[in-house]
Amino acid sequence: MRIFQSWRYPASWSIFRMDDRLLLVIMAVIVGNCSGLAAVALNRALVAMFEWLHHFRDHWWAFTLPAVGAALSSLFLDKIVKEGAGHGVPEVIYSVSRYGGLLRLRSSISRLISSCLTIGSGGSAGPEAPVVMSGASIGSNIAKFFSLNDRQRVTLVGCGAAGAISAIFNAPIAGMVFAIEVILGEWKALHIIPIAIASVTGTEISRILQGNQIAFSHRQFSIDFTDILACIGLAVLTAAASILLTRLLRSMHSISEKVPAPVWVRAAIGGCAVGIVGIFLPVVMGEGYHWIRIMSEGALAKGLAFVALAALAKIVATSLTLGWGGSGGIFAPCLVIGSLVGVTYHHVLALLWPSVSWVNEGCFALLGMAGLISGILQAPLTGIFLIVEITGGYEVILPLIIVSAISTTLCHWIEPASFYLKDLVDLGHLLRPGTDARVLSDMTVRELIEKDCITVKQNMLLREFVNIVQQSRRNYFPVENEANGHFLGMIHLDDIRPYLFNAVMYDTVLIGQIMDTNVEIVHPDDDLSEILNRMDEQHLFSMPVVANNRFIGLISKATLLDKYRKELMVQTGQ
Amino acid sequence: MKLTIKEVAKCLKLPLSTVERWIRQGRIPIQKSGNNLTFTDSAIEKWAASHNLPFTKPQKDRAPQEGSGLENLLSVMKRGGVFHDVKGDDVPAVLQYAVNKMPTLSASVKIRLYERLLEREHLTSTGIGKGVAIPHPHDPLADVIDKPLIATCFLEKPIDFAAIDDKPVFVMFILISPTIKLHLHLLSRLSYCVRDNAFVEFLRASSDSDAFFSKIADFEKQLDKVDHY
Questions:
Q1: Do B86 and B184 reside in the same domain of the chain?
Q2: Whole-angstrom Cα distance, residue B226 to residue B229?
Q3: Which residues of A touch B18 (CB under 8 A)?
Q4: Percent of chain A with pLDDT over 90
Q5: Residues B22 and B124 in one domain
Q6: What CATH number is associated with residue A410?
């Protein structure tokens, strides 16, 4: 019987007892498998959906297909699983930083279905973010099932995300780097090893089931010095496109919120608009991998005007789909926009300096993709490794690094928070490990409370109070109502100083007359950063903690600093 | 050695809730077996050292708290003894006479004590008014005595002590203690008694030591009542 019970508590097995690294590696294998399977499932579903809807696309009403898909996905998220729209990555990041990576089990399937509906019907979005959410949720729930602690669960959430990205792109390093750079924000050996293992497993699952193929193969490039110089211009252009996409997505979101209609109607409006754009420019529809493949091979035989327009149209379509309530990620659209921008730039170069023999336009498409990913996510390493892996083009690494670095820097300069983090930063929810905000958010008022205060009654004579002062070690005394025990105010030693040496006052003054009733109070559930701000603003060193009109204890800056330092040491140490 | 979560919290000088949160977040090394949590003290100590956290092991035989262990007036006074008809016409003479009367001290200590008491009197008079003086050395005599004592000396005839109210002194309490803390503690209690006019009148009228000690015992009770407020 005990054996059956203990299998759910692997942390108590003797081999894992002293160190949980081995346990995490084994868990990472399980999580990597599951999230890899989720990624493959979504991929298969998208293909099936595309084929199933293919023969409807010739009809005149085909432009309403994205509308129906987006509306269904929105209805599904809103009514059935009761989750917010969007791609889900900020939710994962927030959960990792605030709730130790706790995610709901239904999140592991909900985004897969909703994004499948949105993208399969032609909405302009990517399957990656939903898969990340799904993988993260799988990791979180596996950790919960085996009752692992928060730190281990966070690692497994990272494993899930890494396995998903690795599986969907067949790109293990990119998955690993994405999970660490974007999801966890903390480079520690303790995370990196299980995440690497999960990446390997996820990739292997996808290779077994779908074959080992490089997503966007290309011809051999011969890159000259002039090409490397030219990429600086491309980096600026991709940064501009990233900023445009970020801004447009956000403004579309705020416009759609003003429309007085249910969310699924809004999603339908957005989808319909995408469908109409798609009639004229089919490149904007769906996740667009087909087009990336064409462009990276340099086989897109279109003029400058077409590709420039297509890039803009794709930006608009993506913001219409995601901003108006469709469900899906930003990865794939970024890749499409990036390659379109790259091809556009190649055309411009060829127009300006026709005599220079530029490298093939496919190369610029790759660089453009890296520039856009780095710019939008502000994660240069993810951009570099993803492009290297999905194109199998290690020879472009030098310009790739340059484009990624410049694009990230420019975007960071204009938009300090990346697309994923912007909402979190606005709400003050970005709590990266080892930061002040994170340390403060982890500690609670209840842990800092000091209870060695002597409570005095409102109708006490000063004489009695002086006797109490003699016995006490503190300068602050809370005053309570005699009848019902409600907190009335505070009395500080300074308040009685004028009367301390006047014995006549001892029997004539009551505590209720001297006490300070206008005190700043704290609730046990208050946020510590807020409390500290209030202390700073009003030059307070301690504040009474009051709940339900009753005095509970005192919170002081000295204790807070002491505990803060210990917390910081524990959080940042190995 | 196994520690419970409460002991760990105490060793780290942190609230229980913080340690519980650290366990939940997986920041502190712990062994789980089902629902039981056990800490190994060596693992915790190593962990605390690597995180630069103070870690003190629980001590079983803690010395009793100092504040409550201070000796009270009555026993100190009994140790010091009560002396009647202390002779002398001026301050040095009465002090010399009183010190010589004190039974427990050796000759050399008596000389030193006398010098110290006189030294202190030169600084300012210890006559605190109402005919009472509390002579004491400026610094504690830690190396000479290990227990405090108060010698109550009724003077044969009141003498001028240069007291604050210029009244002649008729009773002296010679206070000797090994530590400053003890000195202040006893001085504070003694002055509480002397503040009471009725007590001073009692001292002036009678010098019976039993009645005197029972009065002191009453004061002690009052003081303890205030202390335990």
A1: yes
A2: 5
A3: 443, 447, 563, 567
A4: 20
A5: no
A6: 1.10.3080.10
Pick the range with the lowest mean pLDDT from A97-106, A177-186, A422-431, B10-19: A422-431
The residue-averaged pLDDT of A143-169 equals 90
pLDDT, tens only, A528-573:
888 999 998 988 888 999 988 888 889 988 888 888 988 888 888 7
Domain end marker among A183, A210, A237 = A210
Beta carbons of A300 and A294 less than 8 angstroms apart: yes
Determine whether the interchain pair B24/A150 forms a contact, defined as Cβ–Cβ distance below 8 Å: yes
pLDDT in tens, A24-81: 899 999 999 999 999 999 988 988 888 888 777 777 777 788 888 888 888 888 888 7
pTM beyond 0.90: the answer is no
Q: Tell me which chain B residue has its CA closest to the CA of residue A450.
A: B15
Does the beta-carbon distance from A148 to B26 stay under 8 Å? yes
pLDDT tens by residue, B79-102: 888 888 888 888 888 888 888 888
Residues from chain B that touch A553, judged by Cβ atoms under 8 A, are none
The closest alpha carbon to B181, from B99, B75, B68, belongs to B68
Cβ contact, residue pair B33, A12, below 8 Å: yes
Q: Which of A143, A120, A108, A116 is nearest to A35 (CA)?
A: A108
For residue B19, the chain A residue with the least C-alpha distance is A447
Distances (CA, A) of A245 to A75, A213, A316, A367, B65: 26, 30, 8, 18, 69
End-to-end CA distance of chain A: 37
Structural domain boundaries enclosing B122: 71-227
CATH code at position A508: 3.10.580.10
> Where do we find the tokens 């803690």?
B62
For A109, other C-beta atoms within 10 Å of its C-beta total: 15
Element (H, E) at A232: helix A225-258
Tell whether B171 is covered by a domain: yes
User: Is the CB of residue B42 less than 8 Å away from at least one CB of chain A?
Assistant: no
Residue A188 contacts B where some CB pair is shorter than 8 Å: no
Do B44 and B79 fall within a single domain? no
Is the pLDDT reported for residue A4 higher than 60? no
Nearest beta carbon to residue A149 from set B24, B31, B33:
B24
The answer to whether A574 faces chain B, any CB pair under 8 Å, is: yes
Structure tokens that stand for B179 in this block = 């530590």
Of the three residues A171, A186, A210, the one that is the final residue of a domain is A210
Q: Domain check: are A365 and A265 in the same one?
A: yes
Residue A406 and residue A263 share a domain: yes
| Contacts B22 to A, Cβ<8 Å | 570
Are A100 and B23 a contacting pair at CB < 8 A? no
**Is A149 strand, coil or helix?**
coil
pLDDT of residue A1: 47
Task: Determine, yes or no, domain membership for B221.
Answer: yes
Contacts of B188 in chain A (CB under 8 A): none
Distance CA A495, CA A491 (A): 6
* A144 interface with B at CB cutoff 8 Å: no
Residue to test with chain B: of A1, A23, A27, A149, most B Cβ within 10 A: A149
Quote the pLDDT of residue A497: 83
- Flag if B51 and A444 touch (Cβ within 8 Å): no
Residue owning tokens 């109502």 = A481
Q: What CATH number does residue B123 fall under?
A: 3.40.930.10
Q: Tell me how far apart the alpha carbons of residues B213 and A265 are, in angstroms, rounded to a whole number.
A: 95
B26–A contact, CB cutoff 8 A = yes
DSSP 3-state of B150: strand
Q: Which residues of B touch A468 (CB under 8 A)?
A: 229
Q: Which residues of B belong to the active site? A: 136
Number of residue pairs across A and B with CB atoms under 8 Å?
A: 65
Q: Quick check: A403 pLDDT over 60?
A: yes
Token pair belonging to B31: 């062994």
Q: Please report residues of B whose CB lies closer than 8 A to that of A152.
A: 26
- Domain residues for the domain of A117 are 2-210
